[in-house]
Specification:
The chain has 371 residues and is of the alpha/beta class. 35% of the residues lie in helices and 18% in strands. The protein is built from 15 helices and 15 strands. A hairpin with a 4-residue loop joins strand 14 and strand 15. The chain is globular. The mean pLDDT is 88.
């Protein structure tokens, strides 16, 4: 297994892993770059789990010696090849990818028992009858896309990561600004000037390294459609964006693809939350189809004139209230428990410390063709 190799066969790896003194220089470090739930279902004996999305941040801690023999593997190859290339760039010149991958492995296997640390992490949550072992597994297998990593996206991201959501996708095209920090608690003074996606990724992994964090470009129609289709589609979208264009775009895409969407917004001391359930998502829960974002807020010629946080101001704690409610809606959707705000716009007044509910029915031409 020389430094010039980029791949290793199953047969060669099996020979390297034959019982021998573990100090033997031929014994490689095995890294499984699949998702945590894939690793838990079964992995090559002795492998450590570092999902591809966390490799750059974690490999230095897990494998501090860059001269080590490293074998990376995934199910069939592509993720391992990407990991091998990344490791070489990081200085691991003896990193190779297993070809074709775990599907061809017929050697010694292990199934990961839940670590004691993982059990402790979720202990106070799993004791809830609405969660339990089955619910925690649902969270572990969930894939949630967060669009907007500011005042609302911050508490949502932190609470979903803390709850053990397995995969979080992050989309935001902005950089961290000092004026963000009174409300955007994902970010820190030391990360001012960095991309919000990078800053958020760091905060999430510091809180819970078990989460797979995927970073995406800013939301556009072409890539949102891609994120909501195929075998790696997200199960749920959380919209913490700060502009009407993105809100309409996300709602339209969610209704095209049948993906539930949690929406929130804040203004000064006030905020709002609702959950949008397209037909397929509503049917799975035995609920009527909810209105889309256009039903609640019809697009108008002056839609672009809504005041921004910079113009109107916003109380940071208001973002915490609304963002926490959005996180709760997302968790209820994943767990399949409770009543979500489908067809209901929940309105919060921070100065008066009151909530009120407004029922909204489908009404736009897309949802009601005769409208």
């Amino acid at each position: 297994m020389g430094g010039s190799l980029s791949r290793i066969t199953v047969e060669a790896l099996r020979w390297l892993l034959e019982p021998r003194d573990t100090s033997d220089a031929r014994v490689p470090v095995l890294i499984d770059v699949r998702e945590p739930h894939e690793f838990a279902a079964g992995h090559i004996r002795g492998a450590i789990s570092i999902p591809l999305s966390t490799l750059q941040d974690r490999v230095g801690r897990e494998v501090p010696e860059t001269r080590s023999h490293v074998v990376v593997y995934c199910s069939v190859g592509p993720r391992a090849e990407a990991a091998q290339e990344a490791l070489v760039r990081l200085g691991y010149k003896r990193a190779v990818a297993l070809s074709p991958g775990y599907v061809a492995w017929n050697g010694s296997l292990e199934r990961a028992p839940e670590s004691s640390l993982s059990a402790q992490r979720y202990a106070r949550q799993r004791v809830l009858p609405e969660v339990g072992e089955a619910g925690q597994e649902k969270l572990r297998n969930a894939r949630i896309l967060l669009v907007g990593l500011g005042g609302l996206g911050s508490p949502v991201a932190l609470y979903l990561a803390a709850a053990g959501v397995g995969t979080l996708g992050l989309s935001d095209g902005d950089e961290v600004d000092l004026s963000n920090l009174h409300r955007q608690v994902l970010h820190t003074t030391g990360r001012v000037g960095r991309k919000k996606t990078d800053s958020a990724r760091r905060a999430i992994l510091d809180l819970n390294p078990e989460v797979a964090v995927l970073v995406h470009d800013a939301a556009r129609e072409s890539n949102v459609d891609l994120w909501l289709t195929g075998s790696t589609a997200y199960d749920l979208v959380v919209d913490g964006s700060d502009n009407l264009r993105t809100r309409y775009l996300l709602s339209d895409a969610a209704f095209r693809h049948g993906t539930p969407l949690v929406h929130g917004a804040v203004h000064r001391f006030e905020g709002q939350v609702t959950t949008l359930l397209p037909a397929a998502a509503a049917a799975r829960r035995g609920l009527p189809v909810s209105p889309c974002y256009r039903c609640i807020f019809p697009e108008s010629a002056d839609a672009g004139l809504s005041p921004s946080c910079a113009d109107a101001g916003v109380m940071g704690a208001t973002c915490g209230v609304i963002g926490s409610l959005m996180g709760a809606e997302a968790l209820k959707l994943v767990l399949g428990v409770g009543t979500v705000l489908s067809g209901t716009l929940l309105l919060y007044d921070g100065l008066a410390s009151t909530f009120r509910r407004m029922q909204v029915d489908p009404s736009c031409p897309r949802c009601v063709p005769s409208a």
